[in-house]
Write a structure and sequence with these properties.
- The complex is a heterodimer of chains A (258) and B (66).
- Chain A is of the alpha/beta class and 258 residues long.
- In chain A, 36% of the residues lie in helices and 16% in strands.
- Chain A has one domain: Alpha-Beta Barrel (TIM Barrel).
- In chain A, helix 1 packs parallel to helix 8 and helix 4 packs parallel to helix 5.
- The radius of gyration of chain A is 20 Å and the shape is globular.
- Chain B has a single domain, classed as Beta-grasp domain (Ubiquitin-like (UB roll)).
- In chain B, strands 2-1-5-3-4 form a 5-stranded mixed sheet, with no helix packed on it.
- Classes of the chains: A alpha/beta (258), B mainly beta (66).
- At the A-B interface, strand 4 and helix 2 of A face strand 3 and strand 5 of B.
- Strand 4 of chain A pairs antiparallel with strand 5 of chain B.
């Protein structure tokens, strides 16, 4: 079985195995409630130009830093150099050296550019970052990222924001068998069962944004996700029964009248 | 003198420091990162780095993202 009762990444223990993004909510107040309902300990943020109009509210007004740690991403970066630059800017903003490393290779699919991702991972690990790379569901490549010093690997379940669920559970299963670092399924979750499936397979955690933020009722969906993550994890720890083609009676024949 | 701040032209005082610029923008209390031209300016150097005419200054912070 993978991992103990608590998820630990780079020495940091998490109470929740669900990580949540802060994008795409109808408003900050809804986001704040959804984050609370999700039970998450760590939320992702982007690094962007500050709003020079200080009369407007900012994201950080709605995130209690005593409750949540921040995981800055490098969303929108298409080269290793760019992703490294954004990681360093994020470190300056947040005084934390954790990064959700994204190096995108294609605008329509938002699939990662593996070559650039590995390059950026190596540079950032050397620079003292805790690197959590968003990668595709390729077990060989996940291993390369681990060997390069990634603190966890984050294979996609399906394209970002697609809600298609875990499209290649077999590959995720192979990654789970071989990875020595935590495996966080990142992207693709559409609804609670998708998250539960990832957790039942033994994923160490799930990172999602659109599935919650884009739901009709984000706060309710956040709660559903919290429960799905917990249920999936419990089922994994409990150990499921094997699948069989034929029935096996739950009730004994013994004691029936003749 | 004129600098380029977050993609737009802006008039600032001659020889203004990064720290003074952040004060002027009321951003001192906020968590930000500052890049002047291609270099990230570390927090502890805000008081000593002075801007030159034509400098490209980017001030970034955490925004919503997944």
């Amino acid at each position: 079985m993978r991992g103990g009762e608590t998820l630990t990444i780079a020495g940091k223990a998490f109470r929740s195995r669900l990580f949540v993004g802060t994008g795409k909510y109808p408003d900050f107040a809804t986001m704040e409630k959804a984050l609370a309902a999700s039970g998450t300990d760590m939320v992702t943020v982007a690094v962007r130009r500050v709003n020079l109009d200080r009369t407007q509210e900012s994201l950080l007004d709605y995130i209690d830093l005593k409750k949540y740690s921040l995981l800055p991403n490098t969303a929108g970066c298409y080269t290793a150099d760019e992703a490294v630059k954004y990681s360093r800017l994020a470190r300056e903003v947040g005084m934390s050296s954790w990064v959700k490393l994204e190096v995108i290779g294609d605008q329509r699919t938002l699939f990662p550019d593996n070559e650039e991702l590995l390059k950026a991972t190596k540079i950032l690990v050397k620079d003292g970052f805790v690197v959590l790379p968003y990668t595709n569901d390729d077990p060989v490549f996940a291993k390369k990222l681990e060997d390069a010093g990634a603190a966890a690997v984050m294979p996609l379940g399906a394209p970002i924001g697609s809600g298609l669920g875990i499209r290649n559970p077999h590959n995720i299963a192979i990654i789970l068998q071989s990875a020595k670092v935590p495996v966080i399924v990142d992207a693709g979750v559409g609804t609670a069962s998708d998250a539960a499936i990832a957790m039942e397979m033994g994923a160490d955690g799930v990172l999602m944004n659109t599935a919650i933020a884009g739901a009709k009722d984000p706060v309710k969906m956040a709660e559903a996700m919290r429960k799905a993550i917990e249920a999936g994890r419990l089922a994994y720890e409990a150990g499921r029964i094997p699948k069989k083609s034929y029935a096996s009676a739950s009730t004994t024949m013994e004691g029936m009248i003749e | 003198m004129e600098i380029r701040l977050n993609g737009k032209a802006r008039e600032v005082g001659d020889g203004i420091t990064v720290s003074q610029l952040l004060d002027e923008l009321k951003l001192q209390a906020l968590r930000v990162a500052v890049q002047v031209n291609t270099d990230i300016v570390k927090r502890e150097r805000y008081g000593e780095v002075t801007l030159q005419p034509g400098d490209t200054v980017e001030i970034l912070t955490f925004m919503s993202g997944g």
